[in-house]
């Protein structure tokens, strides 16, 4: 099992506690970010995208610095041709099922066909945080799952 | 009866001046009903809850005070279209509901939007529907005239 995947599983499945590498400031791209790497890998494998962006937006939310709990993804793939938005999003959710049930609390999705991407290549912008993650024990559990 | 108490206690109808206050014995009944109620009952209740109104949303917080940026975006979009009568459930008040609605819709995140009992999507989908004009059409199918149509008319 890849180290990046094992870090994202619930504690009960871990046989070895592996401390996470120290976090760099959120805006500094870090190839060692396990959750981001896993998301990128899984979306690439499933969608063979023409274009893929994975953004860790955790720093925009009420979670500790260095968290990997809130993401925005932009997937451009011909697999989406003919599919309504909801089915596209369900496919992305399915690909990231494990992460969404363990360490990822929020996932903003843009799923475009290559043609749609050609017409409008803009990345969407997440709305400002209203602090809902603070004191939310569900988020605390997810942050813990991400750290372990 | 228990499910009626639960769904009434949890629901806030946008536009209502007063939120539902549970009487003391109702509180006890709701609490024990919740405790004893199997997950299957909740799924059945959710089937009724999502049909309670033409537009039903599950958000963090309330329409008056959303507690999450994505939930707030849903509230603001509906407001922009003049949709002011809808049912809203605050998942932060009820962990069982929070998890149950995700199972019900097979959708991992909140907010969740339902039109005529059918799951439409989350914030991203509602936003894209708003941006590409589909939301006006979908509201029309529900018998709701979007306020944006009137705004468009006035500007001409």
UniProtKB/TrEMBL annotation, chain A:
<feature type="region of interest" description="Disordered">
    <location>
        <begin position="118"/>
        <end position="148"/>
    </location>
</feature>
<comment type="subunit">
    <text>Interacts with GLRX5.</text>
</comment>
<comment type="function">
    <text>Acts as a mitochondrial iron-sulfur (Fe-S) cluster assembly factor that facilitates (Fe-S) cluster insertion into a subset of mitochondrial proteins. Probably acts together with the monothiol glutaredoxin GLRX5. May protect cells against oxidative stress.</text>
</comment>
<comment type="similarity">
    <text>Belongs to the BolA/IbaG family.</text>
</comment>
<dbReference type="InterPro" id="IPR036065">
    <property type="entry name" value="BolA-like_sf"/>
</dbReference>
<dbReference type="InterPro" id="IPR002634">
    <property type="entry name" value="BolA"/>
</dbReference>
<protein>
    <recommendedName>
        <fullName>BolA-like protein 1</fullName>
    </recommendedName>
</protein>
<feature type="compositionally biased region" description="Basic and acidic residues">
    <location>
        <begin position="134"/>
        <end position="148"/>
    </location>
</feature>
<dbReference type="InterPro" id="IPR050961">
    <property type="entry name" value="BolA/IbaG_stress_morph_reg"/>
</dbReference>
<dbReference type="GO" id="GO:1990229">
    <property type="term" value="C:iron-sulfur cluster assembly complex"/>
</dbReference>
<dbReference type="Pfam" id="PF01722">
    <property type="entry name" value="BolA"/>
</dbReference>
<dbReference type="GO" id="GO:0005739">
    <property type="term" value="C:mitochondrion"/>
</dbReference>
UniProtKB/TrEMBL annotation, chain B:
<dbReference type="GO" id="GO:0046872">
    <property type="term" value="F:metal ion binding"/>
</dbReference>
<protein>
    <recommendedName>
        <fullName>Glutaredoxin-related protein 5, mitochondrial</fullName>
    </recommendedName>
</protein>
<dbReference type="GO" id="GO:0030097">
    <property type="term" value="P:hemopoiesis"/>
</dbReference>
<dbReference type="GO" id="GO:0016226">
    <property type="term" value="P:iron-sulfur cluster assembly"/>
</dbReference>
<keyword id="KW-0676">Redox-active center</keyword>
<dbReference type="InterPro" id="IPR036249">
    <property type="entry name" value="Thioredoxin-like_sf"/>
</dbReference>
<feature type="domain" description="Glutaredoxin">
    <location>
        <begin position="55"/>
        <end position="120"/>
    </location>
</feature>
<keyword id="KW-0411">Iron-sulfur</keyword>
<dbReference type="GO" id="GO:0005759">
    <property type="term" value="C:mitochondrial matrix"/>
</dbReference>
<dbReference type="InterPro" id="IPR033658">
    <property type="entry name" value="GRX_PICOT-like"/>
</dbReference>
<dbReference type="Pfam" id="PF00462">
    <property type="entry name" value="Glutaredoxin"/>
</dbReference>
<keyword id="KW-0001">2Fe-2S</keyword>
<dbReference type="InterPro" id="IPR002109">
    <property type="entry name" value="Glutaredoxin"/>
</dbReference>
<keyword id="KW-0479">Metal-binding</keyword>
<dbReference type="GO" id="GO:0051537">
    <property type="term" value="F:2 iron, 2 sulfur cluster binding"/>
</dbReference>
<keyword id="KW-0408">Iron</keyword>
<dbReference type="InterPro" id="IPR004480">
    <property type="entry name" value="Monothiol_GRX-rel"/>
</dbReference>
């Amino acid at each position: 099992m890849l180290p990046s995947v094992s870090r994202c599983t619930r504690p009960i499945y871990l046989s070895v506690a592996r401390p996470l590498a120290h976090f760099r400031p959120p805006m500094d791209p870090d190839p060692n970010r396990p959750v981001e790497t896993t998301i990128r890998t899984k979306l690439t494998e499933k969608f063979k995208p023409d274009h893929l962006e994975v953004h860790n937006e955790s720093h925009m939310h009420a979670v500790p610095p260095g968290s990997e709990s809130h993401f925005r993804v932009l997937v451009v793939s011909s697999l989406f041709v003919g599919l309504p938005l909801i089915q596209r999003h369900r496919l992305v959710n399915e690909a990231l099922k494990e992460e969404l049930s363990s360490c990822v609390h929020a996932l903003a999705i843009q799923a475009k066909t290559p043609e749609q991407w050609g017409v409008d290549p803009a990345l969407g912008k997440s709305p400002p945080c209203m602090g809902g993650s603070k004191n939310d024990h569900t988020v605390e559990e997810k942050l813990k799952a991400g750290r372990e | 009866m228990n499910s009626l108490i639960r769904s009434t206690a949890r629901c806030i109808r946008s536009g209502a001046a007063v939120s539902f206050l549970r009487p003391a014995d109702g509180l006890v009944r709701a609490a024990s009903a919740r405790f004893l109620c199997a997950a299957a009952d909740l799924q059945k209740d959710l089937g009724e809850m999502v049909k309670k109104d033409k537009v039903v949303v599950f958000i963090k917080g309330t329409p008056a005070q959303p507690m999450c940026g994505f939930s707030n975006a849903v509230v603001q979009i509906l407001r922009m279209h003049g949709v002011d009568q809808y049912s809203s459930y605050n998942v932060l008040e009820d962990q069982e509901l929070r998890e149950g609605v995700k199972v019900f819709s097979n959708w991992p995140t909140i907010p969740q939007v339902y039109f005529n009992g059918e799951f439409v999507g989350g914030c991203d989908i509602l936003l894209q529907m708003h941006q590409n004009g589909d939301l006006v059409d979908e509201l029309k199918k529900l018998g709701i005239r979007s306020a944006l149509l009137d705004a468009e008319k006035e500007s001409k």
